[in-house]
């Protein structure tokens, strides 16, 4: 991934896909820490750790992680305290419910307004708790408690989230929102993922989370050339 152009490598020890069950904190640590330690000693790349566990956050930061990527937006008890005094980035993602149940409650009066309001509350709460605003990133959480229509409405109105003035992270690679439109399996969603990526970049995304690094980097380069940036 680094050879292909990745600037950040995301490490996670617990699946958060729809329907996923939680793993124990110790199992998550056993999965994640050795990977962080190996990357730190071998590669010049920022390590992102995908976790909601305060203990995993603390240990990951001590091991050299540069970004905490939390699908629960630091809502677990002790999470804000675990990251408050570090100098890492923090990505706050929107998710309604928990991974094992989030697709069972997907009703919104306005998905864009409600996701925006939820992220606004989390940003405010983090800042009030002593986290510097400059450390924060946001992620609208494509696929996390949203229908297909909700996902594309968020993508269509992604520029709304630029109002926060924070880097916007988008993870849409190979997701069902792509597969359900192109009618292809997970391994055959590259073209659809790249099309969505370009729309995300036009909408203001600053970081693209992808499985297919080389192809996505090429797409970003072409977008930047067209945009003159």
Write up this protein.
This protein has a single domain (8-227), classed as TIM Barrel (Alpha-Beta Barrel), CATH 3.20.20. Helices cover 42% and strands 13% of the residues. The protein has helices spanning 25-42, 54-63, 79-84, 111-128, 148-156, 176-182, 190-202, 213-227, and strands at residues 8-12, 46-50, 67-70, 89-93, 136-139, 169-171, 207-209. The strands form two sheets. Strands 1-2-3-4-5 form a five-stranded parallel sheet. A two-stranded parallel ribbon has the order 6-7. The radius of gyration is 17 Å and the shape is globular. The two termini are 23 Å apart.
Summarize the structure.
The protein has 229 residues and is of the alpha/beta class.
Keywords:
229 residues, alpha/beta, TIM Barrel, 5-stranded parallel β-sheet, globular
Write the layout of secondary structure elements.
Elements: E1 8-12, H1 25-42, E2 46-50, H2 54-63, E3 67-70, H3 79-84, E4 89-93, H4 111-128, E5 136-139, H5 148-156, E6 169-171, H6 176-182, H7 190-202, E7 207-209, H8 213-227
Parallel strand pairs: 1-2, 2-3, 3-4, 4-5, 6-7
Helix pairs in contact: 1-2, 7-8
Cα radius of gyration in angstroms = 17 Å
Number of strands: 7
Low-confidence stretches: none
Look at the structure and give the mean pLDDT.
95
Residues in β-strands, percent:
5-15%
Largest sheet: 5 strands, parallel
SS content category: alpha/beta
- Tell me roughly what share of residues is in helical segments: 40-55%
């Amino acid at each position: 991934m680094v050879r292909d152009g990745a600037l950040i490598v995301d490490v996670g020890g617990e699946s958060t896909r729809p329907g996923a069950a939680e793993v124990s904190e110790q199992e998550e640590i056993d999965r994640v820490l050795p990977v962080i330690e190996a990357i730190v000693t071998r590669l010049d790349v920022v390590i992102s750790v995908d976790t909601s566990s305060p203990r995993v956050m603390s240990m990951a930061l001590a091991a050299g992680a540069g970004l905490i990527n939390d699908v629960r937006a630091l809502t677990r008890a002790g999470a804000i305290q675990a990251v408050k005094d570090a100098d890492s980035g923090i990505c706050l993602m929107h998710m309604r419910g928990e991974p094992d149940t989030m697709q069972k409650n997907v009703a919104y009066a306005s998905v864009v307004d409600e996701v925006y309001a939820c992220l606004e509350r989390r940003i405010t709460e983090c800042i009030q708790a002593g986290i510097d605003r400059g450390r924060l990133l946001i992620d609208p959480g494509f696929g996390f408690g949203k229908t297909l229509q909700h996902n594309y409405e968020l993508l269509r109105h992604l520029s709304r989230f630029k109002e926060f003035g924070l880097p916007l992270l988008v993870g849409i690679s190979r997701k069902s929102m792509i597969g359900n439109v192109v009618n292809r399996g997970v391994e055959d969603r590259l073209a659809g993922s790249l099309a969505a990526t370009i729309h995300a970049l036009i909408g203001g995304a600053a970081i693209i989370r992808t499985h297919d690094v080389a192809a996505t980097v090429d797409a970003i380069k072409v977008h930047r050339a067209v945009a003159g940036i």
